[in-house]
Amino acid sequence: MAEQGAQESAKMTLTAAQKQLLTRRKELDYWQKNARQMRGRNLLTGLTIGAFVLSMFSYTIYSVKQEKIMDEIDDEARIHIMRGPRTGANS
């Protein structure tokens, strides 16, 4: 009986490597069970971020095309060039 108790206590005490192996196996089982769900979530997150970036880029390009500031400045410059320089005699 004493021998059985010694054998059971030897089985119960695991080395650090054995504990690490068991932990790794549990982690692997967890990842295998949840891999499909995580891939789906990652895909959804990636598509959401990509759509946001694409929409911001499109909006920026659209808003820059609508700006008329440079056209107005160019028109004013053309008018001033056609009128000639302003001096005390012609102002």
Task: Walk me through what this model shows.
- This protein has 91 residues and is mainly α.
- It has a domain at 21-83.
- The chain is built from three helices and no strands.
- The chain has helices at 2-12, 16-66, 69-83.
- It starts with a helix and ends in an 8-residue tail after the last helix.
- This is Cytochrome c oxidase assembly factor 3.
- It is found in: Mitochondrion membrane.
- Residues 32-76 form the Cytochrome c oxidase assembly factor 3 mitochondrial coiled-coil domain.
- InterPro entries: Coa3, Coa3_CC.
- Component of 250-400 kDa complexes called cytochrome oxidase assembly intermediates or COA complexes.
What is the fold's blueprint, element by element?
Elements: H1 2-12, H2 16-66, H3 69-83
Keywords: Membrane, Mitochondrion, Mitochondrion inner membrane, Transmembrane, Transmembrane helix
Domain Cytochrome c oxidase assembly factor 3 mitochondrial coiled-coil: 32-76
Pfam family, one: Coa3_cc
Q: Please give the largest β-sheet.
A: none
Shape: rod-shaped
Beta-strand level of the residues, as a percent range?
under 5%
- Given the helix and strand composition, which structural class is it? mainly alpha
Q: Total number of helical segments?
A: 3
Provide the helix percentage: over 70%
Radius of gyration, CA atoms, in whole angstroms: 37 Å
The parts where pLDDT drops under 50 for at least 5 residues are none
Helix-strand sequence = HHH
User: Overall mean pLDDT score?
Assistant: 81
Number of E-type strands: 0
